[in-house]
């Protein structure tokens, strides 16, 4: 939808009429040819000195302003890809472009546009929190005075202002993650790369981080997220790429990908005891216990169809939940 | 670039000042002990060395040894720690060029060498009257020595994988070379073979120049004494820069 809107605007401006602009492949080609992508990789490959082929020539495309999920199981190559994009690692071959600039030819401009929040804590634990931010700004050439102002804004946003003079090692796991997020944002990057940002973070802080990230994205920042919490990717991201063994096995729009999840299994708790066999057309039903029913939805069957059918059989529902995250099911089918 | 350089230097200075009990106090105590034992107790029995009272003779050596050890220790420990806790990634993702990173860390080493050297000199002034024959020679020798050993410490840290690796060179190479550089004696009193061997010890030249700066006595021509550290600084800078550019032990190959 977003792609379509972007293309429509572009076409209007150019006073062109195109009847095929909603065709998927056309849109993808059109956008690639005419719009600067926030990130694109061209056959990006990485083989480590121990001959481990971490990336086997991946082609990633992330639009400007996108909230993009980069998923994959452990060792799939996510952190390697992020490492190369952010300048931590050297690629074996292939190219990276950030906002149309080649990483090798415009190293500094590219680095200024990228903010990285890595998976592992990578700050000096003996340094005061505010110093970590001010120093990072200094490495990007931001004057100390200006850096102090920006650090104050970010530390307040991350609810760490009261702990600004404490050393980083005194912070809890969640606080350290927020400190790393603040550090990634200190030089006001255009693209924010988050490698497992909410790992080990409690629910309350995770929710507030999601809210903040959504706000940043709404303000125009491109966000690339890797996470093991698939519900996090599902709720936040618009586009997705799935890596498996160093290759992209799927790159698509999140909604389209989820629509491919043909069967969804739902668990239904009933008010009264279930007696006898339950039948719902095009669904597989299994009675788990006297008050619990598992329904595997057939293709084209909606929740309301299921609820309606149960109601016709005089079964009243007290609670209904999905047994498995749809993205999780897809993810497993693509990576195993 | 200037802001990035300033940031690294401030960070480095704050780092050793924050742990002053570990960085500044021990050399001051060691110096006091050296002066008490070698200068006060044994010095009076030794008498004079090259026509100078023994306690006065060893003062430049003690100060220079402190500068050498502190400049080296600062870069080796600081850079190794950034590798150890992965905080070097903060620099890798930034726009700071490798040459500025190197210059920043080396400047940190010089700053610590200067601060601790000054603290030691101040302590020594309670025991003996410090004379300065040429402040210029003292300053130049200090900078050359400090830069050289800060660079050496940096290279050591690049290759170091464990904490043991950062203490091997200071204990098994630097300290013996310092003691054998004529810190406590004049090279002229050595048998010819050992005197010839001392010519291969770079610290000998710096020690000689530093003593000349303080006491006005020296065995080596001044240009030679400066040429050795300058040559070594050029070589070490090229090596350190090449290591950084190649990302040795910093970027996973």
Describe this structure in words.
- The complex is a heterodimer of chains A (336) and B (253).
- Chain A has 336 residues and is of the alpha/beta class.
- Chain A has 3 domains: 1-35, no CATH class; 37-258, Rossmann fold, CATH 3.40.50; 261-335, Alpha-L RNA-binding motif (Alpha-Beta Plaits), CATH 3.30.70.
- Helix content of chain A is 38%, strand content 24%.
- Chain A has helices at residues 2-13, 24-34, 78-86, 107-113, 129-139, 144-157, 173-185, 203-218, 230-236, 254-259, 303-312, 326-335, and strands at 39-47, 53-58, 61-62, 67-72, 93-98, 101-102, 114-117, 191-195, 222-226, 239-244, 247-253, 265-270, 284-289, 292-296, 317-322.
- Chain A has a 6-stranded mixed beta sheet, sandwiched between helices. In chain A, strands 1, 2, 3, 5 and 6 form a 5-stranded antiparallel beta sheet that branches.
- In chain A, helix 5 (129-139) packs across helix 6 (144-157) and helix 6 (144-157) crosses helix 7 (173-185).
- With 253 residues, chain B is mainly alpha-helical.
- Chain B is globular and about 60 Å long.
- The relative contact order of chain B is 0.15.
- Chains A and B meet through helix 4 and helix 5 of A and helix 1 and helix 5 of B.
Q: Give the CATH architecture of the largest domain in chain A.
A: 3-Layer(aba) Sandwich
Share in helix of chain A: 25-40%
Q: Average pLDDT across residues of chain B?
A: 89
Oligomeric assembly:
heterodimer
Radius of gyration of chain B: 19 Å
Task: Tell me the domain tally of chain A.
Answer: 3
- Please give the largest β-sheet of chain B: 2 strands, antiparallel
Residue-averaged pLDDT of chain A = 81
Number of strand segments of chain B: 2
